[in-house]
Write a structure and sequence with these properties.
Blueprint lengths: L6 H15 L7 H14 L8 H7 L7 E6 L5 H11 L5 E4 L5 H13 L3 H9 L3 H13 L3 E4 L5 H15 L5 E5 L10 H15 L3 E6 L26 E6 L1 H13 L6 H16 L3 E9 L7 E9 L5 E3 L10
Parallel strand pairs: 1-5, 1-6, 2-3, 2-4, 4-5
Antiparallel strand pairs: 6-7, 7-8, 8-9
Helix pairs in contact: 5-7, 6-7, 10-11
Length: 326
């Protein structure tokens, strides 16, 4: 039987409620406890499908922002699509203004059926029934994926997500924004990142944000580190993944050597090593974990190498070229 509160206890409760209602920004620490327990027990954390990174981050929680940073055409979207494939039964809203939804569908079908997009599109153009069936079955693999391929403003981001939740009949499991510079929220990247972060916090949804950093930040083929983001809002991120290509660093160092008139013996040895490594890393991308706010989580600054397939799959890199063949 519920114990009824007396007049004194009721009055004290109303006074406390009114006192809290007068505060606009103050929240008691009990609020943090409630949110921590809800987050830990909700089962709504989103993993990337990269075991080492998922182990360290323990997943992207509701309201948290994971930023994938990289240079143009270096594999950012591939990593994001890899995460989508890993979470294909979840309710996902993908905002991608610079890529039409049909092209995204083609990439997803390539992942599902391990077939190159070039071959798939040719077969679809020919009316091949098998290829058309692949598209239909890809839709079944991603039953609750919604793609928004129109310009993004903070207002449209909110309105589109609210419509998505109405469509699903539930709140979303993940929002992906590809990429930061396409968000129409002023001219400064920090303002754009602030708007996206505020959206994720307001709606308490896990958020993955892609950021294409400038070429000057990647001069000399440098690895993608925490300071490589061109002031793109890394301070807002709970986690930051860097995506880069080792072959670009190798090509830059080789180009420097080719322009020298004379090379010492050790430089000739180094050139041979670089030429070998250029073959080895011709089809690899590297993913770093440069920022990780999860308590107890570590960084992965040396990076994880993956081999790129024509199908878009990221597979753990295995060096098939023995150094003895030099």
């Amino acid at each position: 039987m519920t114990e009824l509160l007396g007049p004194v206890e009721l009055e004290a409760g109303w006074v406390e409620a009114e006192r809290q209602a007068t505060f606009k920004h103050v929240r008691p620490l009990t609020d943090a406890r409630t949110r921590l327990v809800r987050e830990a027990q909700s089962g709504r954390r989103i993993e990337f499908g990269i075991p080492a990174i998922d182990h360290e981050t323990r997943g992207v929680s509701p309201g948290h922002l994971a930023m994938i940073t990289g240079y143009s055409h270096n594999g950012k979207t591939l990593v994001a699509l890899h995460a989508l494939y890993h979470n294909r039964t979840k309710r996902i809203a993908l905002f991608i203004p610079d890529e039409p939804a049909p092209l995204v569908l083609a990439k997803l079908a390539s992942l599902v059926f391990d077939v190159s997009a070039r071959l798939l599109e040719r077969k679809v153009a020919e009316g091949d029934r098998g290829a058309l069936r692949m598209l239909d079955e890809t839709l079944e693999e991603f039953p609750d994926l919604l793609i928004f391929d129109r310009p993004i403003t903070p207002k449209l981001l909110r309105e589109s997500y609210e419509e998505a939740c109405q469509h699903w009949g539930e709140e979303g499991d993940l929002v992906v924004v590809d990429y930061l510079d396409l968000v129409q929220a002023g001219d400064h990247l920090a303002n754009k990142a602030d708007a996206v972060k505020a959206f994720g916090t307001e709606y308490e949804v896990p958020l993955i944000l892609l950021h294409q950093t400038s070429r000057s930040s990647g001069a000399n083929g440098r690895p993608m580190r925490i300071d490589s983001g061109n002031q793109g809002g890394e301070v807002w991120a709970t986690y930051q993944l860097g995506v880069w290509r080792k072959r670009h660093a190798i090509q830059w160092e080789l180009a420097e050597m080719y322009h020298r008139q004379k090379l010492a013996d050790w430089e000739l040895t180094r050139m041979a090593e670089l030429q070998h490594d250029l073959v080895v890393h011709d089809r690899t991308i590297t993913v770093n974990l440069n920022k990780n706010k999860r308590p107890g989580g570590q960084l992965i600054e040396d990076g994880i190498d993956f081999e790129l397939a024509d199908t878009g799959h990221l597979t753990p890199f295995v060096n098939r070229y023995l150094r003895e063949v030099r």
